[in-house]
Amino acid sequence: MRAPLPPEPERAAEVRRRFVAEARAERPDLAALCLLVGAAGDGALDDAGLDAAQIELDRLAGQLPYRPGGPRAWALALAGLLGDRCGFRGSAADYQRLESSLLHRVLERRRGLPILLSVVWMEVARRAGAPVYGVALPGHFVVGFGPAEEQVLADPFDGGRVLSGSDAETLVAGATGGPLEPGMLRPADPLDVVLRVLNNVRAWAAARPERSDVALWAIELSLALPSHPARLRYEWAQLLVRRGEFLRGAAELEAYAQVVAEVDESAAERVRRQAGAARARLN
């Protein structure tokens, strides 16, 4: 099945404007941002579809029991509803599909990457009043319930299975080879969650050079976030050149070189030479 195609330029520009506004709001809405990521990647998602996805999250939240108890009770209630009754979970094959990073498609397919399934868990639980947040373990995103001293972790990719301390340690060891550090269990900032979603999209596109259109919108949205890695601008400039936008790519390379020059003039000069090579390709 062919991966979704981005929208036409006018719709794409509108989606970016709305994404920027939401990302810079005082309290960014995680569901809205993830759905706008979906709209940037799937031209078939219109405003009615965006609304329908929010309504589905509301509908699922309405099926949870009223305040079931402490953190563990909340985790089990979410697992019973989303994992057991609704069938939300993931598999190795989901890493090969762009749809696994698009929230509206995850809600439709009930399959996705760990971080998108975690977004479903968080947004449904939040609507029901649960003390829920994302936990960005290295290599595997999960959800947490309750304060640090009572924290309960659940893995939506595994149907919401409640994790023991040793389970979390095993996940971290498998990803990094190192131990689980207390800082890894802190609640993830919503904008960091969105950047990680976009990083997954970029990784999918990097393995498929013919889908540079996907890499382009993913980088553009990443750059629209208030905080992002500076090197993303270099990656964006290189992508523009590869796509044949030589003048625009050269201008971005030169802008990046100005930033780099403050810390490494020799690296800046190498980037300037790349900008010159890009312009030369117009001749």
Task: Describe this protein's structure.
- This protein is an alpha+beta fold and 283 residues long.
- Helices cover 58% and strands 7% of the residues.
- The chain has 12 helices and 4 strands; from the N terminus they run H-H-H-H-H-H-E-E-E-E-H-H-H-H-H-H.
- Strands 1-2-3-4 form a 4-stranded antiparallel sheet, with helices on both faces.
Short description:
InterPro entries: SirB1_N. Residues 54-199 form the Protein SirB1 N-terminal domain. This protein has 283 residues and is α+β, with helices and mostly antiparallel strands.
Topology, element by element:
Elements: H1 9-23, H2 30-41, H3 47-61, H4 71-85, H5 103-109, H6 114-127, E1 132-137, E2 140-145, E3 152-155, E4 161-163, H7 165-176, H8 190-206, H9 212-224, H10 231-242, H11 246-261, H12 265-280
Antiparallel strand pairs: 1-2, 2-3, 3-4
SS element count, helices: 12
- Structural class of the secondary structure composition? alpha+beta
Helicity range: 55-70%
Instruction: Quote the average pLDDT.
Output: 94
What are the low-pLDDT stretches, counting only 5+ consecutive residues below 50?
Answer: none
Strand elements, count: 4
Shape: globular
Q: What oligomeric state do the depicted chains represent? A: single chain
Question: First CA to last CA: what distance?
Answer: 39 Å
Query: What percentage of amino acids are in beta strands?
Result: 5-15%
Cα-atom radius of gyration: 20 Å
Order of helices and strands: HHHHHHEEEEHHHHHH
Main β-sheet, spatial strand arrangement: 1-2-3-4
Report the major sheet. 4 strands, antiparallel
Domain Protein SirB1 N-terminal: 54-199
Organism: Streptomyces heilongjiangensis
Pfam families: TPR_9, Transglut_core2
Family: Belongs to the UPF0162 family.
